[in-house]
């Protein structure tokens, strides 16, 4: 073809051609890997909730293999997490947008003045205990306002968030999903989003979200979607849970995967907060155990964090 015609076609396509080329590649390829490579984000939720969770998460980031974490801004021990973030700007930390306060005797309220978000509060003035209550009682405007306030407070405390996600998945509902993505993009902080495939697509539809249409629309805006998400394994003992996670690692599919972890130490503080503390303690032990890193290396799995994804978000 004549070179002048080729140049004209390139000019006509312009950015749309580049965008189409980018969208045709898998997320792994956009990160510089092959489409058959297995990438894994090991993400610790709930930093800031209490000292036990903070201490465990910091150890897992520094001496374990956890690659990133997110912080609950309304919680009592957030300032300790913020101090760590300021002293370690290289740490891959996000904001765990929090609209629920689920524990029996250990509670927290909102960051926004209560008078501005009454639908998010229970009779005692704390955040609601369940996502169901948030959906039933809170307005999208109240939820969005609390999202914005939490991000603003994180910045005030010196965080440089690499991402945002949603505590207990409260924002993954049709009433709040657009607020979640809108606030993230306006703050130029990428949100955790998942490709809605198989059972995940069914779950999205149950929450009032059209999986295909919503995903396609957000991708055109430059949002990134994980290929697969593991929210944890079952098991009553350390070894049963270890084997559950090791099986998950052996069967990890190609693409960008995330495993969500909830970590803590084994101490009276966490034991007084939740009856499920042992699972957190088990996860801390598993993901600070050198054998876990050895298995990941032997399987050829590439560990990444949200800081890697943030470099190509909204492009």
Instruction: Find the CATH topology.
Output: TIM Barrel
Give the helix/strand class: alpha/beta
Overall tally of domains: 1
CATH-defined superfamily: Glycoside hydrolase/deacetylase
Number of strands: 8
Which regions are unreliable across 5 or more consecutive residues at pLDDT < 50? 1-21
Helix content: 40-55%
Largest sheet: 8 strands, parallel
Shape: globular
Distance between the termini: 31 Å
Radius of gyration over all CA atoms, rounded: 20 Å
Strand content: 5-15%
Q: Which oligomerization state do the chains in this entry correspond to?
A: single chain
CATH class: Alpha Beta
The averaged pLDDT comes out at 92
Topology as H/E string?
A: HHEHEHEHHEHEHHEHEHHHEH
State the helix count. 14
From the 3D coordinates, which CATH architecture would you assign?
Alpha-Beta Barrel
Throw out a few tags for this protein:
single chain, 315 residues, alpha/beta, TIM Barrel, 8-stranded parallel sheet, 8 strands, globular, disordered N terminus
Overall description:
This protein is an alpha/beta fold and 315 residues long. It has one domain: Alpha-Beta Barrel (TIM Barrel), CATH 3.20.20.370. 46% of the residues lie in helices and 12% in strands. The chain is built from 14 helices and eight strands. Strands 1, 2, 3, 4, 5, 6, 7 and 8 form an eight-stranded parallel sheet that branches. Helix 6 runs parallel beside helix 7. The longest helix is centred in the first third of the chain and has 22 residues. The protein is globular and about 55 Å long. The two termini are 31 Å apart. The N terminus is likely disordered.
